[in-house]
Amino acid sequence: MKMSIDSTVELLNGVAMPRLGLGVWRTQEGEEVERAVGAALQAGYRSIDTASMYGNEAGVGRAVRDSGVPREQVFVTTKVWNDQQGYDNTLRAFEQSAANLGLGHVDLYLIHWPVKGKYKDTYRALEELYEQGRVRAIGVSNFLEHHLEDLMGACRIKPMVNQVEMHPLLTRKKLLMFCRKEGIQLESWRPLMQGNLDLPLLQELSRKYGKTPAQIVIRWHLQLGVVTIPKSVTESRIRENAGVFDFELEPEDMNRIDELNENRRFGADPDNFDF
User: Fold this and answer.
1) What is the average per-residue pLDDT within 198-209?
2) Which of 85, 148, 160, 229 could be 118's S-S partner, Cβ–Cβ 3.0 to 4.6 Å?
3) Which residues have a Cβ under 8 Å from the Cβ of 85 and sit 6 or more positions away?
């Protein structure tokens, strides 16, 4: 599978979404996030993933504007937080996020978590924003198969992306197959398992391919057709995480990584969260 840092996937509506992006969860507003986003854009990244809950949308917007990279070449994602959900609340939350970013349009707007009794009304607001041309694509985050089925039974526009926790210890095979069948692009957050990369197999493959364990894991995601957004605030690590386009994992090694699955989460369970 020939890929480069410019490689994209085509969403259901034809919009091109970069396969690799930078996540900015827990990246401080101000200098830290501006430096990280600037370093990523300089290194060739063209996708930045933020959220209203992260509190750093304004810094992301400044960094994109100051980067010298044309706005239309940068794919910016943000998300509506749980206490902002519901139809009217979501429309207001979007206006605040759009103002914080200061980038004109938003490329991808997601529901952050499937808040019971609210996510359908929240998604109606996303459909409205999409039809107004305020966002280029809409989708969800942390939705399981039953959440997606419930939503698709009520929505007019199928979600284009589902962003979930996914990594070698949580391979999400059933969800991946479901999303493929429905044409929903799966995107992985926390792909590097909070740095828990000292698994013997990853160390072995690191030696075999002459790549870091992080690069092995990112490449595994990409070869599965999953968009991924590793987070870092260190310029050298941001560049290292992008050094995954000059090698390819052999099919048997892809399968061996799949077999590491323990259904182990580092984040919350979408069926049981209290925030």
Assistant:
1) 98
2) 85
3) 111, 115, 118, 119, 121, 122
Tell me the HSE value of 36 on the side-chain side, using a 13 A CA sphere. Answer: 28
Amino acid at 116: K
Pick among 3.20.20.100, 3.40.309.10, 3.40.50.10490, 3.30.360.10: CATH of 8-258: 3.20.20.100
Task: Summarize the annotated binding site for substrate as residue ranges.
Answer: 112
Q: What is the mean pLDDT of residues 123-140?
A: 98
**Residue 123 annotated to the active site:** no
Task: Look at residue 2 in the predicted model and tell me its pLDDT.
Answer: 85
Q: State the binding site.
A: 112
Phi-psi region of 68 (alpha: psi -120 to 50; beta: other; left: phi over 0): left
What is the residue type of 212? T
pLDDT in tens, 45-54: 999 999 999 9
How far apart are alpha carbons 275 and 268 in whole angstroms? Answer: 10
Per domain, the residue ranges of the chain are: 8-258
> Backbone phi, then psi, for 247, in 5-degree steps?
-155, 165
Residue 245's pLDDT band (boundaries 50, 70, 90)? very high
User: Catalytic residue among 54, 119, 123, 130, which?
Assistant: 54
Q: CA 15 to CA 63: how far, in whole Å?
A: 23
The predicted model scores a pTM of 0.97
| CA–CA dist 151, 129 (Å, integer) | 17
